[in-house]
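Figure-free illustration: sequence to structure, shown twice.
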Amino acid sequence: RKSEHVWISIFSVSYHNILVYLFIKLLKNKGNNNTIKSFNKLILILEKMKQLFVIRHGDYDWKDLSNSGEKQIERIAEDMKAIVGEMYDGHYLLSSTAPRAEQSTEIIAKAFGLESFDKNRRLWTGGGDNLYQEELEAIDAMITPYEDTHDIVTITTHYEVVGSYPRHIVR
């Protein structure tokens, strides 16, 4: 039997200016209950939300996006538009309150013709490689109200969220 493949569109502007697509492949394995539970949880999320973008802000100088950071986010926004196409119902944008993340989100909002976006200081986690479970669950709570009403949810944030949140949603 063929394995199940699930794509989540996740973009990250890395420190090396590389656009990273995170491909999550879950195999249905009758002997592995954890894999099946993870697969089922991911399917429930994806049934409600057609696209989830988790984006690290662009390169920056001190607090603000640099010129190269602006161009990175402009390219990402165009790639996002190519992925979702013209036919979608609602786009919820959520940003960290860090100026570089807000500036990145403004570029994405403009590309999609959106006038506003939400901000949440809990997305500015202060660094590190991983988030605590309570921080991950807080992000769940931030986006859950929009799962049924928006085809696209975009979170513009920082390295540690981009690294931790995708792993969290497939557990």
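We now fold a second protein in the same way, so the two outputs can be compared directly.
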Amino acid sequence: AAAVFLLGTGLLNFVQKKTTQIRWEPLSYFITSSFVGTASMQILMLLLGFLNLYYPLTAVLVTLPLVFLSYPAVKKAFQKAPQTFKKIAGEGPVYEKAALIFLASAVFFAALDILIRRGLFPDTLTNDFANYLPYYQEVLHRHNLWPNQYFWHYFHSRGAGLTHLAILLTD
């Protein structure tokens, strides 16, 4: 998460230097940077996959510098987060505060649900393992995204760059 945030921050800063300056609220800057960084990392992983460069060393070389360089930006975002939440919570009517608490709770419990159902106790009833796992294994075995014996997954899963990156880093 820190790596994609830093990548997004760098790209947004580059674009801002070329265009007019945008005054960002800290929370919207964090969210926008994360989305821009995720999209950029997906494109990078897609290119690496088509260049036959899906190796663990490549994944480490792409990720490690971003993780180390992201520390100041992530620290700054977390320092500004309480101020932003205090500002949001301090202004406006009670129903807006209640809506904010409700939305924050919904996001927290949705993330917790995903962590428990998919991360800690993967569900074998939906047949995800039998469906996607052979394609991911073949991609990592061949070190590329080009069509293989599971060619139908090429059209669905070649854009799963962050999934491939996670597998390369953890396998």
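Summary for the second example: The longest helix spans residues 94-120.
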